[in-house]
């Protein structure tokens, strides 16, 4: 005879215990010995093979009793002798304190992503005392032609067989059995919930394997399940309404109260059976929905509306299934739009938080898919999900998904301020602090960057030593994203801006050609935001020798456009200081700005910021003459005076007003250009009159006043001021008089 055995060999140097390199698991290396014994029991032939067993300990956490867990491992694994208990305990202790590796983290995330509904088990009332046999299928088919009780018994026996995958192939070829089951389901499903549940369960067993989907489709079981679900949901509405009416009539005597209790018990009994039917029907549909064409057919029959209606139930296993189904559907835009039209978010909100771990995780992942839609994000905030999601930041299993949803919500400016009313920001700051010198999670720093764009949020972030911690860590790690967050904080006027005075030197020291452009961009952007009156910018520029760097970076193509733009903004900020403006003007920075203006004339942001620098320069006595007399800046400003961008026009007008006030010659040129622009149509008309001698009058005197209104829509008052200066343009003074009266 042939015997095999597995044993743990202590004396063998090749057999040992170890920890898994990436997972929370022990690895048992062992040997299998196969022996062929002779008739007298003597050893005739033997062979040894090495093997290994992985014992996963997912429940291991910092609070786990390692000693108790080690004893349990030794008891349950026959390959480990009790003498190895101390070693098992030592290895478990090592696993408990080992930091999660990136691979392990990814594997855990993968496992959570593939979370799916628990496999169906036989429902209550479906157990039979007899054991089914594949050889007696014909007998079971005969029962399907009898009354309802016999049909239930026959289908339950076939279900016993179908639950064993080895029997599915043979049942598949028994067309009589499948045809009879499909017929009974079509004809009798309304008469018996138990019968419908059992037969759909049989087809569910087939639907669990993709190669058998054809037979389920052939008998149109999917369409039938859709009808079953729709009908059962309507029945539930009727039951609930009847129960409500009975509860409404307040019972005064014991008899009525007993009737009411009986009605409640009956309702719960019906509900329990109905939920079994719904669960098996929806699970079958979920399996069939693996084919996107079948899924589209379900969508056309309003599968989304039916699933969302089931969300009001309390059965957790049914809810896990429904949320899984909705999550699968939500990746398609059309399905997501269907969910937006019904109360999906409102019904999901009640499931956050909940005690069922899988249900909570699946609900959050569905909400994450829906949160890509701005309207659904607004709905999430409206139904009060913001504080609920914030509370989940402390839940290690769901923190990442919750943070991603919060990130999507933080994208909308209208919702940024609502985070102030939760404890989200203190939690986020604590997480940043706990990261120490490790790389910050993308989700964490991204949500912080978004929230820092709100003034009140920024103030919360700076409370205590918040800014000091952020700045210290950003400068030490040269973390561009962390500095982007700091840059967003620095843009707000008020008390937060003055806190940055202590860090001006540290930031200025980072602005060097040797540093990475992205890093310099964030540091420079932060400095450029610091419009603080008491700050001695001249000292900063001199001490850190920033003027040559700023001038070099103004050359078109010397760096990325984003960095060059920040250099221009920085120049505008420091030019608020009189001495700084003079220093920059003497360094020849204005011609460099004009050259950059020529190169970037199509980019409104560049144009606006360069014009703002000119505004700052003409504002100071020390640099005004340089701008007006030594550069072509005023001419460029005149060209931009009528730009299509309102902000550029505004800054240009303010700058030109100052120039016109201090320089008469430029004042006349500016006035002339303004007149020409406002009277352009009128001037063109007059010139055409001069060219065409054959028409002495362009129009009748009766219409003069009406026509001139068109040409002076910018305002007559302004035209009056300019008319004396340019009267030489006209040949007929009477016409001019009529035009401006």
UniProtKB/TrEMBL annotation:
Biological process (GO) annotations held by this record are: cilium organization; microtubule-based movement
* ARM repeat intervals: 588-628
Protein name (Swiss-Prot/TrEMBL): Kinesin-associated protein 3b
Q: Which Pfam families match?
A: KAP
Q: Which organism is it from?
A: Sander lucioperca (Pike-perch)
InterPro entries xref list = ARM-like, ARM-type_fold, Armadillo, KAP3
Q: Name one GO molecular function term.
A: kinesin binding
- SMART domains according to UniProt: ARM (SM00185), KAP (SM01297)
Q: Kindly state one GO CC term assigned in the UniProt record.
A: kinesin II complex
């Amino acid at each position: 005879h042939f015997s095999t055995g597995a044993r743990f060999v202590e004396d063998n140097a090749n057999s040992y215990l170890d920890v898994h390199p990436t997972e929370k698991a022990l690895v048992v290396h062992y040997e299998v010995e196969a022996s062929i014994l002779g008739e007298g029991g003597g050893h005739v032939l033997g062979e040894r093979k090495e093997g290994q067993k992985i014992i996963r300990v997912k429940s291991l956490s910092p609070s786990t009793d390692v000693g108790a867990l080690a004893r349990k491992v030794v008891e349950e694994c026959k390959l480990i002798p009790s003498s190895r208990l101390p070693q098992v305990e030592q290895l478990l202790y090592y696993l408990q304190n080992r930091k999660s590796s990136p691979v392990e983290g990814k594997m855990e995330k993968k496992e959570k992503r593939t979370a799916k509904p628990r496999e169906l088990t036989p429902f209550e009332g479906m157990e039979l005392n007899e054991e089914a046999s594949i050889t007696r299928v014909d007998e079971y088919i005969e029962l399907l032609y009898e009354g309802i009780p016999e049909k239930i018994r026959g289908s339950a026996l076939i279900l016993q067989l179908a639950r064993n995958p080895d029997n599915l192939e043979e049942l598949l070829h028994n067309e009589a059995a499948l045809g009879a089951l499909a017929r009974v389901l079509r004809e009798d499903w309304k008469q018996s919930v138990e019968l419908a549940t059992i037969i759909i369960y049989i087809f569910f067993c087939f639907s669990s394997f993709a190669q058998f989907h054809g037979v389920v489709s052939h008998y149109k079981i999917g369409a039938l399940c859709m009808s079953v679900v729709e009908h059962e949901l309507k029945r539930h509405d009727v039951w609930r309404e009847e129960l409500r009416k009975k509860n409404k009539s307040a019972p005064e005597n014991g008899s009525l109260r007993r009737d009411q209790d009986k009605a409640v018990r009956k309702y719960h009994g019906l509900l329990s059976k109905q939920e079994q039917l719904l669960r098996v029907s929806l699970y079958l549909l979920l399996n069939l929905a693996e084919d996107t064409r079948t899924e589209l057919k379900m969508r056309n029959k309003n599968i989304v509306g039916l699933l969302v209606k089931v969300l009001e139930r309390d059965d957790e296993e049914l809810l896990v299934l429904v949320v899984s189904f909705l999550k699968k559907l939500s990746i398609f835009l059309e399905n997501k739009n269907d969910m937006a039209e019904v109360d999906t978010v409102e019904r999901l909100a009640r499931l956050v938080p909940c005690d069922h771990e899988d249900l909570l995780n699946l609900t959050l992942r569905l909400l994450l898919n829906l949160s890509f839609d701005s309207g659904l994000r607004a709905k999430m905030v409206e139904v009060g999900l913001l504080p609920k999601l914030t509370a989940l930041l402390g839940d290690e299993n769901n923190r990442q998904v919750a943070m991603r949803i919060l990130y999507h919500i933080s994208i909308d400016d209208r919702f940024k301020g609502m985070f102030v009313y939760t404890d989200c920001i203190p939690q986020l700051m604590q997480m940043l602090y706990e990261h120490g010198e490790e790389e910050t999670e993308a989700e964490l720093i991204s949500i912080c960057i978004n929230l820092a764009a709100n003034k009140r949020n920024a103030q919360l972030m700076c409370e205590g030593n918040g800014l000091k911690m952020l700045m210290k860590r950003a400068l030490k790690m040269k973390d561009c994203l962390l500095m982007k967050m700091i840059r967003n904080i620095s843009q707000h006027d008020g008390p937060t801006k003055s806190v940055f005075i202590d860090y001006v030197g540290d930031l200025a020291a980072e602005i060097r050609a040797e540093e990475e452009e992205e890093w310099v961009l964030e540091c420079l952007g932060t400095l450029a935001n610091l419009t603080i009156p008491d700050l001695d910018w001249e000292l900063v520029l001199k001490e850190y020798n920033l003027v040559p760097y700023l001038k070099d970076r103004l050359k078109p193509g010397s760096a990325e456009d984003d960095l060059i733009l920040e250099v221009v903004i920085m120049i505008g900020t420091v030019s608020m200081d009189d001495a700084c403006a003079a220093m920059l003007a003497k360094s020849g920075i204005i011609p460099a700005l004009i050259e950059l203006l020529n190169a970037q004339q199509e980019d409104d942001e560049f144009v606006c910021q360069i014009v703002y620098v000119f505004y700052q320069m003409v504002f100071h006595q020390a640099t005004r003459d340089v701008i007006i007399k030594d550069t072509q800046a005023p001419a460029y400003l005149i060209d931009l005076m009528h730009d299509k961008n309102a902000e550029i026009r505004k800054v240009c007008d303010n700058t030109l007003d100052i120039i016109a006030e201090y320089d008469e010659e430029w004042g006349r040129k500016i006035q002339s250009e303004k007149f020409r622009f406002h009277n352009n149509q009128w001037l063109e008309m007059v010139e055409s009159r001069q060219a065409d001698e054959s028409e002495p009058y362009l129009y009748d005197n009766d219409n003069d006043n009406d026509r001139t209104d068109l040409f002076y829509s910018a305002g007559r008052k302004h035209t009056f001021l300019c008319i004396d200066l340019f009267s030489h343009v006209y040949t007929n003074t009477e016409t001019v008089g009529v035009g401006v009266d």
